[in-house]
Amino acid sequence: MIRRGAKERDFRASPIGLKRTIIVATLPRVQCHDCGVVRQIKVGFADVRRSYTKAWAKHARQLTRSMTITNNKIKTVQRQFYGIRDREYFELLLYSLHATKYALVG
């Protein structure tokens, strides 16, 4: 391997609190003796050709799952209360969904 400089890359990471987190890494470029191809080295915390870390991808998947569940609950409440004219009551129902705990009975 022959070193061929370096390139600075930004990777989006999991947020800390409400703060967006970015990892800035300087990755060396290397050239293969046999084939002459120049490539960046692989990093363990991110997949190839991605601008985010594996931890951030996991965080995004978890958020997507919880948002899907919340959206399904909202759609159910909308179906149940179709035609209600009291918008404030409907909004209170939506806010109460977040605090509602469901349990299996039987």
From TrEMBL:
Residues 4-35 form the Transposase IS204/IS1001/IS1096/IS1165 zinc-finger domain. Pfam families: Zn_ribbon_ISL3. It comes from the Bacteria. This is Transposase IS204/IS1001/IS1096/IS1165 zinc-finger domain-containing protein. It comes from Rubripirellula obstinata. The lineage of its organism: Bacteria, Pseudomonadati, Planctomycetota, Planctomycetia, Pirellulales.
